[in-house]
From TrEMBL:
This is Family 10 glycosylhydrolase. Residues 77-377 form the Glycosyl hydrolase-like domain. Residues 52-64 have a biased composition (Acidic residues). InterPro entries: Divisome_Glycosyl_Hydrolase (IPR052177), GH (IPR017853), GHL10 (IPR003790). Keywords: Signal. The keyword Zinc does not apply. Residues 35-51 have a biased composition (Basic and acidic residues). It comes from Christiangramia sediminis. Residues 33-64 are annotated as: Disordered. Signal peptide: none annotated. The keyword Cytoplasm does not apply.
């Protein structure tokens, strides 16, 4: 369906949305943007004005700083999709596929995301204390080969493959790990190398058949931290990602309390004074802070993201009700955001906009109001909502609402890639609507503010077009390249070049018979920083 259809279907809840956005606690007082066919594109000045600086009060500026040219438009928006491996939800589709079949499925997913203008993949690589990559710490995953501990044949490293193919398409690769789940019910037999058998004292059996590591155990903390850092050290990833599983959901254990009596009594016997709930929260908090610090100490540019349950506590904000993750999962997600331990925060806001007690705009506005140190807040949204007729157009509406609330650094994470690839009308509605054009991942200046060098390029002339080719310098950290161009009587347009698509042909005259007027180029590094905008001399190439 087209974007106009989506927009008209969203009108029935527009009045409610506007009212909520005026009432919520978000920092912005702007109205929600309602253009359904374009990503956030904001005209900028093409050159920074250089102010006179008193010699005594300010350090002398370098010529590089003085000559820095801002890109002419803002084209940043995070667009990611979760790819789940547990229970073979998304990839691989079965646990008995050949290596070539696994690769073929992976390529199909990446090609789909590239075509639909996504720029990040969140791939689950540790679903149950196992590995979908080469590891000396944990066994090969049952969900990859059908047998725990069995490597793919012919051998390949799936994570290496995913990273290379994602980067070739200009997409970030985030590794998604479950820090405490030891065995999932769909994992069938417990392998001989599973932590359940190698370290039985570190795990607890739950009523639903799952096994869970005890977050109160120092050995568990050490083991899971080692797994995370092993990946960070050996793989060229862009981020580490945790989801909402900390202490398990109460339903997993038949509503019984988590069986951590041994570690709790050890804490008490050593003089611990916290309540059991506060002690459990501290166990999780300490682990989150530790992972954040260790990642940055190893590779400062690797982001750390968490996707907690969408409600912190009932009544926050007023009128919200639902499960209390603070008391049930012992996850103080608000604290992690307040402290800035994480680089991007993705609350799972899987409810429709007009579901008052779990309202999408109300919750997103509240989480953004808690973003006091200025990290990225990119909500997780539920693509499965579009399966019901009454929620047609909901996903595009939620993307637009997010842009209105998160106007400086917007973004959305999509659960999950399956419904997107299976629902052709949904995919078309995004491509024809809010994802009509590509976007860059927003920069993370607290990680790195150093801008890359202007990229090398070649220009060639033909009768009707100008051919531009990006020349990648292997010694530089350029991840993508952006070509901006403008015709007479028109606004700026752009194309993002990736490692596997380094060329662009720009017509000298557009379909409206307007003559090409300006062309410029920037480089983009691993953390989203853009180089100075370089305007190219194209006059001699024009007729």
């Amino acid at each position: 369906m087209g974007s106009n259809f989506i927009f008209s279907n969203s009108l029935r809840s527009l009045g409610f949305i506007v009212l909520i956005l005026l009432m919520n606690a978000c920092k912005s007082t702007q109205a929600v943007k309602t253009e359904p066919t374009e990503p956030k594109v904001v005209e900028k000045e093409t050159e920074k004005p250089v102010e006179e600086i008193p010699e005594i009060e300010q350090p002398e500026e370098t010529s590089e700083e003085i000559n820095f040219m801002e890109p002419p438009i803002d084209i940043e928006e995070f667009r990611a999709a979760w790819i789940a491996t547990v229970a073979n939800i998304n990839w691989p589709s079965r646990n008995d596929l050949s290596t070539e079949a696994q690769k073929k499925e992976a390529i199909a997913m990446l090609d789909f995301l590239e075509k639909h203008n996504f720029n990040a993949v969140i791939l689950q690589v540790r679903p149950q204390a196992d590995a979908l990559y080469e590891s000396d710490i944990e066994p090969w995953s049952y969900f990859l080969t059908g047998k725990s501990g069995k490597a793919p044949q012919p051998y390949y490293d799936p994570l290496e493959f995913w990273i290379e193919e994602a980067h070739n398409r200009g997409m970030e690769l985030h590794v998604w790990l479950n820090p405490y789940r030891a065995h999932h019910t769909t994992g069938k037999e417990i392998g001989e190398k599973s932590i359940v058998k190698t370290h039985p004292g570190l795990v607890r059996e739950l009523k639903n058949g799952m096994w869970w590591m005890d977050p109160g155990s120092n050995q568990v903390q050490e083991h899971s931290a080692n797994v995370v850092m092993d990946i960070v050290k050996r793989y060229d990833i862009d981020a580490v990602h945790f989801d909402d599983y900390f202490y398990p959901y109460a339903s997993y254990n038949g509503k019984k309390d988590f069986p951590d009596e041994n570690s709790w009594q050890k804490y008490v016997s050593e003089g611990g004074e916290l309540s059991r709930g506060d002690w459990r929260r501290k166990n999780v908090n300490d682990f989150i802070e530790r992972i954040a610090e260790e990642i940055k100490a190893e590779k400062s540019y690797v982001k750390f993201g968490i996707s907690p349950f969408g409600i912190w506590r009932p009544g926050f904000p007023k009128g919200i009700s639902g499960m209390d993750q603070y008391e049930e999962l012992y996850a103080d997600a608000k604290l992690w955001l307040n402290k800035g331990w994480i680089d991007y925060f993705t609350p799972q806001l899987y409810w429709p906009t007009n579901q008052m007690k779990q309202s999408f705009p109300v919750l997103l506005g509240w989480w953004e109001s808690e973003n006091v140190v200025g990290r990225h807040v990119w909500p997780g949204i539920n693509l499965g909502l579009e399966e019901k007729e009454e929620h047609k157009g909901e996903i595009a509406s939620q993307i637009l609402i997010s842009r209105g609330i998160l106007r400086d650094n917007p973004g959305t994470v999509h659960w999950n890639i399956g419904p997107l690839m299976k629902n052709d009308s949904l995919a078309k509605s995004l491509l024809n609507g809010p994802y009509h054009r590509n976007a860059l991942v927003p920069a993370s200046p607290w990680l790195d503010e150093e801008v890359p060098a202007v990229p090398d390029f070649k220009l060639k002339n033909s009768a009707d077009d100008i051919h531009l080719s990006w020349i990648q310098n292997e010694l530089e950290e350029t991840f993508r390249c952006v070509v901006y161009y403008r015709y007479e009587n028109s606004g700026w347009e752009f194309k993002i070049l990736n490692l596997n698509s380094k060329n662009i042909e720009i017509p000298k005259v557009n379909t409206d018979k307007n003559k090409l007027e300006k062309v410029g180029i920037t480089a983009v590094d691993r953390t989203g920083n853009q180089s100075s905008f370089k305007e190219l001399e194209i006059e001699k190439l024009l007729p």
